[in-house]
Structures
1.
Amino acid sequence: MEKNNNAQGPTHLHHREGLGGGSAIASFLEARGVKPTSTRLLVYRALAEHHHPMSLRELDDALDTVDRSSIFRTLTLLLAHHLVHVIEGGAGTALYEVCEGHDHCSLSDQHAHFYCTSCQRTFCFHSLHVPQPEMPAGFTATAINYLVKGLCPDCAASPVK
Ligand SMILES: [Zn+2]
Ligand SMILES: [Zn+2]
Ligand SMILES: [Zn+2]
C-alpha cells in the first residue's frame, strides 16, 4: 500500500530536470567554456534553483561550505562567460541570476524585474522581455537593467499604515 506515491507523479519536477543533476550542470558549464569545479557547480546551482535573483550575501548564507571571496571570484568568472547576469536591485545591491539563453546570451533573453519598495524583495518577470532600445551609431548594448518599482501583491493587500 506504500506504492501510492506513484500516483502523484513528479510532474512539477520536469521543469527543472535539465538543471536538476550536478552532471547536467557540469556538462552545460563545460559546453560554455567553463571548467566545472565544485565551487562553480555549487554557485551556479544555487542561483539556478532560487526563484529570485540573489545578492552576494544571500549566496554566502546559502553556501556554508564556500567562503565569500570564492563565491565572488566564481561570480566574476560566470559573468565573464555570460552564464550569469548581474542586475542592479532596487536597494542598490547587485543581484545575480543565471542567464536564460540556451546556447548563448543575448539581449532578447533578458527579462524585467520588479522591486517592492515595501518588503524590498525583487521579483523576476520571466515573461516580460526588456524593451530593446535603438542605440545611437557606434554603441553596442550588452545588458539592460529594466527594473520596475512598486508594491508586490502581498504588500498591496496589507498596507503598512
Ligand atoms: Zn543572457
Ligand atoms: Zn512587497
Ligand atoms: Zn530575473
Note: Residues 1-18 have pLDDT under 50 and may be disordered.
2.
Amino acid sequence: MTGLEGPARRRIRVIRGGPVLVEGPVEVVHDGEVIVCDRFQVALCQCGRSKILPFCDTSHRRSRRRN
Ligand code: FES
C-alpha cells in the first residue's frame, strides 16, 4: 500500500437514449444548487424532457412522434 489511494471509485452507467445512472450517495450540483442524494443509485436526465431536472422521470421513454 502506498497510502496515496484516492476516494473509492463510483460507477457511472450511461444508458443510450436514457439517463446516466450514478452510484450514490452523491451531491448533484444543478443551477448552482447542491442537491444531496442518499439513494444507492441516482438517475440523471440526459434528454432534457424530465419535469424533475436534473433527475430522470422516465419521460425519455415517450416517443416524440407516433406513426
Ligand atoms: S433521460 Fe429520462 S427523462 Fe430524460
Note: The mean pLDDT is 90.
